[in-house]
């Protein structure tokens, strides 16, 4: 699955406002005596995570940016390299095959809005790679499967359930985690003895451009999953575009025992 630079740019401000700074405080305390820092950003997109996190960590940093889309990698590398005391390099390819050997030498592994696109086996393998490499993992903005509209209406539950089912769909023989990702990640790291902390990281939208664009995809996916909703969709989309919305996400920090 690929995402357009325009969509990633539209959501960057909301992402930045949503991510947990409390978990970053723990990361900074954990890595306090490490300088420079090497950070591997999985599914980096245009580098939004790095732009948000680099200044909060401080010091000299080297970012290794992973993505499948060479267009996004070029944008991410250019943006990250422009930050003072930060260098960057890119890795193009499938990040689901990463092992502890691949992560050797990293001080932190990060990702943003990625885990719902993994399968349970891929999530477990990623946790094993991080723990065996003795590297903390900061995984932000995993979808939680819950939307709160104000005002609420009866159709909200039907569209939410259909969207969540769509997120859990099978793609090319892979069953995606969707909104089960936060719990699956927490369970995978805890089973390996890592210390796990989570924090809520909701988008708070108020009938803005991001909400309108996000809703098109959210309603469209729900209808694709449950075609019976198609008749209600146009008017529902119009009404929900005029409401405020809280889109719930979960951030997770896992620190292996050996760190």
What are the salient characteristics of this protein?
single chain, 259 residues, alpha/beta, eight-stranded mixed beta sheet, two-stranded antiparallel sheet, 10 helices, 25% strand, globular
Q: What's the quick description here?
A:
Helix 6 (120-132) links the parallel strand 4 and strand 5 (137-150). It is globular, with a radius of gyration of 18 Å.
Shape: globular
Amount of beta strand: 25-35%
Structural class by sheet pairing and helices: alpha/beta
**Low-confidence parts, pLDDT < 50 over ≥5 residues?**
none
What is the succession of H and E elements? HHEHEHEHEHEHEEHEEHHE
The portion of residues assigned to helices is 40-55%
> What is the helix tally?
10
Report the mean per-residue pLDDT as an integer. 96
Cα separation of the termini: 33 Å
Could you tell me the number of beta strands? 10
Q: Sheet bearing the most strands, described?
A: 8 strands, mixed
Task: Specify Rg, calculated over alpha carbons.
Answer: 18 Å
Secondary structure elements and their pairing?
Blueprint: H1 5-18, H2 21-30, E1 37-42, H3 48-57, E2 61-67, H4 70-81, E3 86-92, H5 100-103, E4 108-112, H6 120-132, E5 137-150, H7 155-167, E6 170-171, E7 174-175, H8 181-191, E8 195-200, E9 203-206, H9 209-225, H10 233-241, E10 244-255
Parallel strand pairs: 1-2, 1-4, 2-3, 4-5
Antiparallel strand pairs: 5-10, 6-7, 8-10, 9-10
Description:
α6 (120-132) packs parallel to α8 (181-191). The longest helix has 17 residues, at 209-225. Helices cover 44% and strands 25% of the residues. By secondary structure, the chain is of the alpha/beta class. It has 10 helices and 10 strands. It has helices at 5-18, 21-30, 48-57, 70-81, 100-103, 120-132, 155-167, 181-191, 209-225, 233-241; strands at 37-42, 61-67, 86-92, 108-112, 137-150, 170-171, 174-175, 195-200, 203-206, 244-255.
